[in-house]
């Protein structure tokens, strides 16, 4: 497991950029097992998510308007989003890290909107601290349960996977069903 100790921190950074919750929980577990240092995992994860948010924000600020102008179909959607953004700016800025599937899109949209750099700095740091703190704590306590029951989990991994896959499918089905009903109502 020497490779894990040497490349683990790089994995934290790449994982933070690409995914989120599962990655931090997994790396917290590795830290609890002694392969990585907990404080470094949390610091690198926080830094990588913060820098990813900033990259997306500035991409929206620099290139977003031109992209919207080049794609007329998006202009109506952007207009509605901008109105929502102005009404619920603080809530969205504080909570976008917790909105799975919107972590890349919303910082880009914040860059496009009237959100000032100062506002984005403040809420991005605060939201990042809350998000990383929540999942790091969850990972820390969850990892003890996983480690304690590792033998049982390994023996029943297929069943656990099937249950999780079934739940994901059920959620996906109802979310898609709801969006199809809304699309029909709008038509």
Give the SSE map.
Elements: H1 2-18, H2 21-32, H3 38-70, H4 72-87, H5 89-95, H6 105-112, H7 117-148, H8 150-155, H9 157-186
Helix pairs in contact: 1-2, 1-3, 2-3, 2-7, 3-6, 3-7, 5-7
Notable characteristics:
187 residues, single chain, mainly alpha, globular
Characterize the main sheet.
none
Number of helices: 9
Average pLDDT figure: 83
Measured as a percent range, the helix fraction is over 70%
Instruction: Report, as a whole number of angstroms, the end-to-end distance.
Output: 57 Å
**What oligomerization state is this entry in?**
single chain
Order of helices and strands: HHHHHHHHH
**Any idea what the shape is?**
globular
Structural class: mainly alpha
How many strands in all?
0
Percent range for β-strand residues: under 5%
Rg computed from alpha carbons, rounded to a whole number of angstroms: 20 Å
- Count of folded domains: 2
Ranges where pLDDT stays below 50 over 5 or more residues in a row are none
What do these coordinates show?
The chain is mainly α and 187 residues long. The protein has 2 domains: 2-150, no CATH class; 156-187. The chain has helices at residues 2-18, 21-32, 38-70, 72-87, 89-95, 105-112, 117-148, 150-155, 157-186. Helix 1 (2-18) runs parallel beside helix 3 (38-70), helix 3 (38-70) packs across helix 6 (105-112) and helix 5 (89-95) runs parallel beside helix 7 (117-148). The longest helix is centred in the N-terminal third of the chain and has 33 residues, at 38-70. The mean pLDDT is 83.
């Amino acid at each position: 497991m020497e490779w894990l100790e040497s490349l683990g921190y790089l994995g934290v950074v790449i994982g933070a950029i690409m995914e989120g919750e599962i990655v931090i929980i997994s790396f917290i577990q590795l830290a609890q097992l002694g392969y990585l240092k907990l404080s470094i995992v949390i610091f690198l994860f926080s830094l990588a998510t913060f820098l990813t948010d900033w990259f997306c924000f500035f991409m929206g600020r620099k290139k977003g308007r031109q992209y919207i102008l080049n794609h007329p179909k998006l202009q109506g959607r952007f207009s509605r989003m901008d109105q929502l953004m102005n009404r619920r700016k603080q809530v969205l800025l504080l909570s976008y890290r917790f909105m799975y599937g919107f972590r890349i899109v919303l910082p880009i949209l914040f860059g496009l909107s009237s959100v000032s750099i100062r506002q984005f700095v403040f809420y991005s740091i605060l939201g990042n601290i809350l998000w990383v703190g929540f999942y790091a704590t969850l990972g820390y306590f969850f990892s003890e349960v996983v480690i304690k029951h590792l033998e049982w989990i390994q023996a029943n991994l297929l069943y656990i996977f099937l249950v999780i896959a079934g739940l994901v499918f059920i959620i996906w089905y109802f979310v898609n069903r709801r969006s199809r009903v809304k699309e029909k109502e709008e038509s």
